[in-house]
Write a structure and sequence with these properties.
Layout lengths: L15 H12 L5 E2 H8 L3 H13 L3 E4 L9 E4 L6 H4 L4 E2 L2 E2 L1 H18 L2 E2 H11 L8 H13 L3 E5 L14 E5 L2 H6 L1 E2 H4 L3 H4 L18 H7 L4
Antiparallel strand pairs: 1-3, 2-3, 4-5, 6-8, 7-8, 7-9
Helix pairs in contact: 1-3, 6-7
Length: 231
């Protein structure tokens, strides 16, 4: 009876334990796998797994990667894969550490832009950063949102919703906006938490409401009554 032929893709010179471990690691692709999970999946003894991992590292078939969610656990990945953002943290991290310098620069640029514009939307900030090419990677809207949320938590800016009036005249009512956190900024905007208490928060036609439209704050009797002002 002839022996089963190994797949041609098998790296040469591997013992059975190394091959089993390598196959498990490859199956995890860009997520990688924790050493303890390797032991559980292969059912190999601890010392065999440890020895095989060292051998695979030496042969440059696998690599050790940092998992930002748990830096104390050793994760392994096949060399042909790059760690996913869930593992590496994406562009905000370098070698498993938060790139504070990059984030600080982006926050300063966002702050200057918001201060100059008085009130901005996420889309506006995103377009500004892309236009000025302040980063080497293609920054996403989600990443800009993370920066702005961090600035809100640090009380550098506030998150409000457009009223369609004054500084908000070009922004549809109800759109989430950002402005510098100051006494003047708070006075001119409506904080997210307070928005639900005004008529707009419960209006079924708010998506159709625009400053110059048929439905607008200027002709809304409920909004005028709530503000207690005479337009």
């Amino acid at each position: 009876m002839s022996k089963r032929k190994r797949p041609e893709t098998d790296p040469p010179g591997l013992v059975d334990s190394e091959r089993a471990i390598l196959n498990v690691i490859k199956s995890k692709k860009d997520i990688g796998i924790w050493a303890r999970d390797i032991k559980q999946e292969t059912k190999l003894a601890d010392h065999v797994v440890t020895k095989s991992l060292k051998s695979l590292l030496t042969k440059k078939l696998i690599k050790e990667v940092v998992n930002i969610q748990n830096k104390g656990k050793k994760h392994y990945m096949a060399v042909e894969f790059e760690p996913s953002k869930e593992i590496s943290g994406g562009e905000w991290y370098v070698d498993g550490n938060l790139d504070k310098a990059l984030i600080n620069v982006l926050e300063q640029l966002c702050f200057r832009y918001i201060r100059a514009q008085k009130v901005v939307t996420l889309e506006g900030v995103h377009n500004e950063l892309k236009k000025n090419r302040v980063v080497t990677f293609d920054i996403s809207s989600q990443q800009v949102g993370e920066i702005l949320n961090s600035m809100v938590l640090d009380n550098n800016i506030i998150e409000v919703k457009s009223t369609g009036l004054r500084d908000y005249h070009s922004i549809p009512i109800g759109t989430v906006c950002y402005r510098v956190a100051s006494a003047a900024g708070v006075a001119k905007g409506l904080r997210i938490g307070a928005f639900a208490s005004i008529p707009c928060g419960a209006c079924p036609r708010i998506s159709l409401c625009t400053p110059d439209g048929v439905i607008s704050p200027s002709n809304c009797v409920y909004y005028a009554r709530w503000l207690n002002i005479d337009f």
